Amino acid sequence: MSKLPEMISKHQEAIRADWLKQMSGAVRRADLMSNEEIDSQSRELLTTIASGAKSGGITNLDGPAWTPAREALAAISASRAKQGFTTSETAIFVLSLKQPLFAMVRKELAASPDAVFDEIWKATLLLDNLALITADAFQTTREKFIARQQEELMELSTPVVKLWDGILALPIIGTLDSARTQVVMESLLQAVVQTNSRFAIIDITGVPTVDTLVAQHLLKTITAARLMGAECIISGVRPQIAQTIVHLGIDLANVITKAKLADAFALALQRTGKTVVAMDSGNAKKTLFKKEE
Amino acid sequence: MKSVKQETVLLTTSGDVVVARQKVRQWAMEMKFTLVDQTKLVTAASELARNALDHGKGGQMVIEHVENSIRNGLKLVFEDRGPGIPDIEAALRDGFTTAGGMGLGLGGSKRLVNDFQIESEPGKGTRITVVRWK
Ligand SMILES: Nc1ncnc2c1ncn2[C@@H]1O[C@H](COP(=O)(O)OP(=O)(O)O)[C@@H](O)[C@H]1O
Ligand SMILES: [Mg+2]
């Protein structure tokens, strides 16, 4: 039988004081967490570990006796994931309990070196297990957090920009296969009507994947814009995207595509009877855009 | 074919399709596939994951780094317990759709990978296995 549970319970406050004292800068990250916070986290964690060990033993941490400790670790991981700690910083927070725990074992069992070794070994296993639980919980929180950020990114409204008289641009950033696509496309069509534009440039540089669903949304928008008298130009078609579109068998023969937004803009200007000319150095009076004669 | 490592992504919401794509992109990058090959894999995954979700009523993707005696590959298995595909040959035909899509997802993803296999039983579900070799 291990004496650890009893020792942890009995010396909880001393262990905690030692733990806080030794907590190094890297673990503590005073820039991310206040003293009160670390104080309450360490107290809660040690209390739940003590009670888990006392009623559930220290070899299996899956049982109900350890539920409060597991929950405390999950809560600590969650708050740290949001505060910007790394996985290892969070795991080290738990692992840094080793030193005070070992010191306590050595002091309590000073008379019996064998027992010291035995209990230190058990304490190591216990803390490694707790650190693993922490790392898992941290990972889960991070994944949820990232998924939410992605969702928010998907919801970001994409602005329709007026580049020139009669020329609109819609730079799309993020996933294009969600419900937001509909909203984005509708706002483009509305802007076409409001500004009486003849050209709408849809820039997909910021769209990571163009699959058949994205292509279908784009094609529908292009068709609708045409019905309203506006021509769409797709820009930002990267080489790897172009290849994939061909393999998918998507027919873009009736769509004007350009590699760069600037090329699309130049084309639209030209088609609306304007042209881009270079400014003569030394002659500031010349304009950048001039009406084609 | 030997398995080096594998991971499962559940496909129950539209957000899961995003996660599936990101996982495939990440693995393909780690395995040092070229940018074009990464894009092909991610796009095929996007098509098949969305099919499993939209037509198959949800399922999962298993992503696996495999190797044989000469090369490494990224293998993706999409599984659902949906209605199944009654006529696989028809479903593979470009333009065939029962849901108002473009009907290019199956045929297209087949062209984006090296190995492509469909197993489907009406009423039981569908399993599609693809591999792209390096
Ligand atoms: N996992 C699946 N379960 C059931 N039916 C499917 C599945 N995947 C594809 N199908 C069928 O095959 C058809 C063609 O699929 P696809 O080429 O991806 O085109 P789309 O998804 O645009 O309809 C679908 O319309 C559907 O009827
Ligand atoms: Mg499809």
> Helix proportion of residues of chain A, in percent?
55-70%
- Strand fraction of chain A equals 5-15%
Using the coordinates above, name the CATH class of chain B: Alpha Beta
Mean pLDDT value of chain B? 96
CATH level-3 fold name of the largest domain in chain A: Globin-like
Rg of chain B is 14 Å
End-to-end C-alpha gap of chain B:
14 Å
Distance between the termini of chain A: 97 Å
Strand order of the largest sheet of chain A: 1-2-3-4-5
| Structural category of chain B | alpha+beta
Radius of gyration of chain A: 31 Å
Distinct bound molecules: adenosine-5'-diphosphate, magnesium ion
Q: CATH-wise, what's the superfamily of chain B?
A: Histidine kinase-like ATPase, C-terminal domain
**Elements of chain A, N to C (H/E):** HHHHHHHHEEHEHEHEHEE
Q: Count up the domains of chain A.
A: 2
Biggest interface between chains: A-B, 24 and 27 residues
Task: State the main characteristics.
heterodimer; A: 293 residues; alpha/beta; Globin-like; Transcription Regulator spoIIAA; 5-stranded mixed beta sheet; two-stranded antiparallel sheet; 12 helices; 7 strands; 60% helix; B: 134 residues; alpha+beta; Heat Shock Protein 90; 5-stranded antiparallel beta sheet; 4 helices; 5 strands; 33% strand; binds adenosine-5'-diphosphate; binds magnesium ion
How would you describe what is shown here?
The complex is a heterodimer of chains A (293) and B (134). Chain A has 293 residues and is an alpha/beta fold. Chain A folds into 2 domains: 4-150, Globin-like (Orthogonal Bundle); 161-291, STAS domain (Transcription Regulator spoIIAA, 2-Layer Sandwich). Helices cover 60% and strands 11% of the residues of chain A. Chain A is built from 12 helices and 7 strands. In chain A, strands 1-2-3-4-5 form a 5-stranded mixed beta sheet, sandwiched between helices. In chain A, helix 1 (4-10) runs antiparallel to helix 4, helix 4 (35-56) packs antiparallel against helix 5 and helix 9 runs parallel beside helix 10. The mean pLDDT of chain A is 86. In chain B, helix 1 (14-30) runs antiparallel to helix 2. Chain B has 134 residues and is an alpha+beta fold. Chain B has helices at residues 14-30, 35-54, 88-92, 105-112, and strands at 2-11, 59-67, 72-80, 115-121, 125-133. In chain B, strand 2 and strand 3 form a beta hairpin. Chain B is globular, with a radius of gyration of 14 Å. Chain B contains 4 helices and 5 strands; from the N terminus they run E-H-H-E-E-H-H-E-E. In chain B, strands 1-2-3-5-4 form a 5-stranded antiparallel beta sheet, with helices on one face. The mean pLDDT of chain B is 96. Residues 47, 50-51, 101, 105 of chain B line the site of magnesium ion (MG). Magnesium ion (MG) is lined by residues 47, 50-51, 101, 105 of chain B.
